[in-house]
């Protein structure tokens, strides 16, 4: 989708270029070689150079210096956040720890307080920003203080996908926080309540296996048909050749926490509920993912 087709889209240049580091990228400790995973190597390919973007909103302005001190004793201690990818003598990609200069990874933005869509436009520009320097650990934190709206400050995390996936990133960020009343304690993570498994008769077990077998056949047939004969219907969200190089507009939406908790308690899980909301929104837009979603059901 081109930027001209999106009214009100105003993209601007943002400061994503890394400064010349004052610290040389050399191994700090002799450690055992850790090879890069196949997925990590894939995300390092030119056509698959993929980054994770995460936006954190804060009720109060962000104290940058305090955040730097916190990251030095938490986030930076994680070996992936203090390592770079190099090739060994055999040509294999491995992780090598380096000395980290925290100032190279924290970017303070000059916020336009009069623009209510500043954060959205900033993240939009960040999504198509140049790649990070591979001679340093590939992560950045962008601090936006003075933003308008419900939050007084935003922190945008930009992490290369080779360092991990979104779930591990959220777990790591949560581990960097502490309780407000007990600064030395980690926050409590709620544990999902396990539902009692319904006892099924032998007949229902056999019926379930037959249903699984039939659904598998249908899924394989639909997948094969889509790959060979069928194609997605024309839709406003259907991409075209070269669409990955065009600018995109990212929009945020606020959800009431009380509503999310109500749905979570009903379905016993937040992730599934959010997936259903997103899937339903895509269905309303054009139904372009109907066949794909139908296949995933099996």
Measured distance between first and last alpha carbons: 31 Å
Number of strands: 7
Biggest sheet architecture? 4 strands, mixed
β-strand amount: 5-15%
The helix fraction, in percent, is 25-40%
CATH H-level name of the largest domain... which superfamily? Answer: Chloramphenicol acetyltransferase-like domain
Low-confidence stretches: 1-12, 21-28, 285-298
What structural class do you assign from the helix and strand content?
A: alpha+beta
CATH architecture of the largest domain: 2-Layer Sandwich
Summed over residues and divided by their number, the pLDDT gives a mean of 77
C-alpha-based Rg, rounded:
23 Å
In the residues, how many domains can be counted? 2
Strand order of the largest sheet: 2-7-6-5
Write the layout of secondary structure elements.
Layout: E1 34-35, H1 38-43, E2 51-58, H2 64-73, E3 83-87, E4 93-97, E5 106-108, H3 118-127, E6 139-145, E7 153-160, H4 166-175, H5 202-228, H6 257-267, H7 270-285, H8 290-296
Parallel strand pairs: 5-6
Antiparallel strand pairs: 1-4, 2-7, 3-4, 6-7
Helix pairs in contact: 5-8
Pfam family, one: WS_DGAT_cat
Transmembrane segments: 203-230, 270-294
Protein name: diacylglycerol O-acyltransferase
